[in-house]
Amino acid sequence: MLKTTPNLHADLDSILITEQRLKRRLKKLGEEITEAYEDKEITAISIINGAIFFTADLLRKIHRPVRLDCIRVSSYRNHTTSKEKPQILDTLRLNVAKQHILLIDDILDTGKTLSVVAKLLKKRRPASLKTCVLLDKQGRREVDFEADFVGFKIPDNFVVGYGLDFAERYRNLPDIGILKPSLQNPPEWG
Ligand code: IMP
Ligand code: MG
After folding, report:
1. H or E segment at 126?
2. Percent of the chain, pLDDT > 90?
3. How far is the CA of 95 from the centre of ligand 1 (A)?
4. Is 90 annotated in the active site?
5. 108 lines ligand 1 (CB under 6 A)
């Protein structure tokens, strides 16, 4: 049985970033990253599932050689706040020693996820490590962490769409929107 309304947009309070705005920003972000890496090959590490959509679109706007790998990190499950320390669930296949890593995530919130993953990657002795996030909720930081490339700074609202989920739903919304508070944390959602 469907647990969301059939029209995903109806579950939003409002749209925060439209598909068109996302497209425009990604083109610019791609240019920024292209410039930053000059003659270097990039090893992109995408934190899945959230960063899947962003990574796929962004990498096609970067005009440098790119290798891609993914890392899976436990996160919110069915809650809108992260309480526990993030756990690495599935790790890298690529050797990243002496490589230029671009770590990509959908959103920088408390900073816990990216700081844990960045720490793990640094142990593998890359030539450089930069981070790129689509969204940055600067006001929510609990650990000191800033990304090198940021798509949009956003206020402290729980957002879904364009890869961002609530209990694995809404990732396929083409826009990013604020989920209605009444739909956050329903206990029956598996
Ligand atoms: P952090 O570890 O608190 O920085 O959280 C980062 C992770 O939490 C991201 O990779 C997202 O998966 C998730 N997250 C944080 N805020 C939101 C949100 O507003 N909507 C959906 N997921 C979020
Ligand atoms: Mg996530």
Report:
1. none
2. 81
3. 27
4. no
5. yes
Q: Which residue has the tokens 């996160």?
A: 75
Decide whether any atom of ligand 1 lies within 6 Å of the 173 Cβ.
no
The H or E element containing residue 24 is helix 19-37
pLDDT tens-digit series, residues 102-116: 999 999 999 999 999
Q: Rounded distance, CA 15 to CA 161, Å?
A: 10
Structural domains of the chain, ranges and CATH numbers in brackets: 19-154 (3.40.50.2020)
Choosing from 70, 106, 120 the residue with most ligand 1 atoms within 8 A of its CB, the one to mutate for a pocket test is: 106
Q: What kind and span of H or E run contains 104?
A: strand 100-108
What is the chain's length? 190
DSSP character at residue 166 = B
Catalytic residue among 109, 136, 165, 175: 109
